[in-house]
Amino acid sequence: MKDRLELVRNAAGRLVPAVVNGRPGVAYAGVGKHPATGRKAAPPVRRACDYPSNGDKRVPDLETAFRRIGLRDGMVISNHHHLRNGTA
């Protein structure tokens, strides 16, 4: 006989299963309530809270940008090919 499906209510008000494919599920808790962690191939997983709340990631100059990204000796810097000669 099948086990009874247990449902929990998430922050969006929807009923979702508490167990998914035999593993405990994590119901949506709301914006910023469950920060993602882990790695993809190499870079860390970025979250919305890692950026300014107004969404503006610009910096005043290149030196500041290079310092923030952790540019080190031996790294390669590239730019998008549409930005040649300073025009779009």
SSE arrangement:
Blueprint: E1 7-9, E2 15-17, E3 19-20, E4 23-24, H1 62-69
Describe the structure.
- There is one protein chain.
- With 88 residues, the chain is largely without helices or strands.
- It has one helix and four strands.
- The protein has one helix at residues 62-69; strands at 7-9, 15-17, 19-20, 23-24.
- The termini are far apart.
In short:
With 88 residues, the chain is mostly loops.
How much of the sequence lies in strands comes to 5-15%
**What's the arrangement of strands in the largest beta sheet?**
1-2
Estimated helix fraction: under 10%
Order of helices and strands: EEEEH
Tell me the major beta sheet.
Answer: 2 strands, antiparallel
Number of E strands:
4
Shape from CA axes? elongated
Give unreliable regions as ranges.
Answer: none
Distance between the first and last residues' Cα: 64 Å
**Number of H/I helices:** 1
Radius of gyration: 21 Å
* SS-based class: little secondary structure
User: Can you give the mean pLDDT?
Assistant: 80
